Amino acid sequence: MAILMCRPEYFGVEYEINPWMHVSVKVDHTLADTQWRTLYAAYQRLGVDIELAEPHAGLPDMVFSANAAAVWDGAAVLSNFRHPERQGEEGYWRRELERRGFTVHALPKEVAFEGAGDALFVGDRLFCGYGFRTDRDAHARVGRLLGVDVVSIELADPRFYHLDTCFCPLNDRTVLYAPDALTSASARLVRQLVPHVIEVPLDVAAGFACNAMPVDGCVVSSLAAGRLEAPLADAGFDTLELPMSEFMKSGGGVRCLSLPLDMGRS
Ligand code: ARG
């Protein structure tokens, strides 16, 4: 498994584009660096090939590589960030992906799309979120460009503004998700389409427990995932809980810091 990460060299909370971000709350940069390195080391131990993107000054959210693009089988659909604060990342992400041999597609400028933050595969079906960052119009376009079927999921709670904050595919038939972060129709759709769901209460999801990365049988997540150890063990997964406090001040956790590069290629 290959994952793209970006060192938190210029990370900080310098603007407010989600309800977690408060410029008045100081980020401990040393601690952020330690937390990021701990995640990096955990991936290394689990045998992940880690690729590093170059961080850039003035782009404090570039650490959240999940938002670079949606990736499938050597192709990528680049993000069109909703907020101007992050739009400066787009050209850099294009270069990072092209450098690695991806065919990079772009959407029309007026269609907002925030990459794997709002686009997650369950098997070969792409679940796409909308309601806060990504436009629903983006979904079918992304599906066509990647040649995959798409399911649109409506987000209902502004704290869970990207799909990956409340929904995490663990394997081809299992999803860890917080139904209350979705509209009731979308939660119903998830239950209909996914053979095995593990439901997470909102207060646990608010600790970024669903913002997780499964690596084989191990679910790497934030400390809040400690409260999911039992249901995850029942489903056959180990849990690895890592402190993510500094990134949570920006509305991110483990998954946001990670872009899997080899989806559709195994
Ligand atoms: N501060 C970042 C933003 O609001 C956090 C991004 C989190 N990324 C994610 N994939 N959920 O855009």
The CATH topology: L-arginine/glycine Amidinotransferase, Chain A
The molecules bound to the chains, other than polymers, are: arginine
Helical amount: 10-25%
Q: How far is the N terminus from the C terminus?
A: 9 Å
Radius of gyration, in angstroms, nearest whole number: 17 Å
How many domains is the backbone divided into?
1
CATH architecture: 5-stranded Propeller
CATH class: Alpha Beta
Secondary structure tally, helices = 8
Annotation, overall tally of beta strands: 15
Major β-sheet annotation? 3 strands, mixed
Provide the spatial order of strands within the biggest beta sheet.
2-1-15
Low-confidence stretches: none
Shape: globular
In N-to-C order, the SSE pattern is EHEEEHHEEEHEEEHEHEEHEHE
Strand content is 15-25%
Mean of all residue-level pLDDT scores: 98
Structural class: alpha/beta
The CATH superfamily bears the name L-arginine/glycine Amidinotransferase, Chain A
Describe this structure in words.
With 266 residues, the chain is an alpha/beta fold. It has one domain (2-260): L-arginine/glycine Amidinotransferase, Chain A, CATH 3.75.10. The protein is built from eight helices and 15 strands. The chain has helices at 29-45, 84-87, 90-99, 136-146, 184-193, 202-205, 229-234, 245-248; strands spanning 2-6, 49-53, 69-72, 75-78, 103-105, 119-122, 125-130, 149-154, 167-171, 174-177, 196-199, 213-215, 218-222, 238-242, 259-260. It has a three-stranded mixed sheet, with helices on one face. Strands 3-4-5 form a three-stranded mixed sheet, with helices on both faces. Strand 1, helix 1 (29-45) and strand 2 form a beta-alpha-beta unit. The longest helix is centred in the first third of the chain and has 17 residues, at 29-45. The chain is globular, with a radius of gyration of 17 Å. The termini are close together. The mean pLDDT is 98. Bound molecules: arginine (ARG). Arginine is lined by residues 17-18, 21, 61, 64, 66-67, 86, 117, 162, 164-165, 250-252, 256.
